[in-house]
């Protein structure tokens, strides 16, 4: 009888919470849904929401993202530009975009520490990645965007998964949109492969990639 009571207590305290977590994941996770169930394959030109965050990944990633944003109508949407510490080039490009196209309207800026610098050993990048995730978590919880646009590199992985965990906990409703780099023709980037399961929309710019992945969307070259 005592063993039976112990077993019942174990089920209540361990198994039921785990089951509830799994049900929450199944309800929230985009990877169990095809794109048509999420957005009816609308193009990015139909992007809606009161608040959009745009991650600038430095270098070519920033260049591609700026070309994409230029094609979107974000005049009536609050814009938050996210850039990595030390990346003054991306910050200046975002500020220039605000001045030239939005008349210094609703734009704001978030700086987050780099998860890993170029050439940094992977082992030593563990603490810097954790710190980057923590800072990004604090700042994005305050801003709580409706949509976030990502296109790499590695730092965007920590941002995406942090937002996904917050969504599981019911702390936000941010939709994650990832746009694969134009340079990726036949194979996804590492960032793309890692982020795809948790994105609400995953957009590629070449037909071979579109045919490989059921969750991918394809509208031609966007950048």
UniProtKB/TrEMBL annotation:
GO terms for cellular component: nuclear membrane; UDP-N-acetylglucosamine transferase complex. One of its GO terms (molecular function) is N-acetylglucosaminyldiphosphodolichol N-acetylglucosaminyltransferase activity. Keywords: Endoplasmic reticulum, Membrane, Transmembrane, Transmembrane helix. Its main location: endoplasmic reticulum. Gene3D superfamilies: Glycogen Phosphorylase B. It is a single-pass membrane protein. InterPro entries: Oligosacch_biosynth_Alg14. Pfam families: Alg14 (PF08660). The chain crosses the membrane at residues 6-26, 122-141, 147-169. Involved in protein N-glycosylation. Essential for the second step of the dolichol-linked oligosaccharide pathway. Anchors the catalytic subunit ALG13 to the ER. PANTHER family: GLYCOSYL TRANSFERASE-RELATED, UDP-N-ACETYLGLUCOSAMINE TRANSFERASE SUBUNIT ALG14 HOMOLOG. Heterodimer with ALG13 to form a functional enzyme. Belongs to the ALG14 family. This is UDP-N-acetylglucosamine transferase subunit ALG14. It comes from Candida theae.
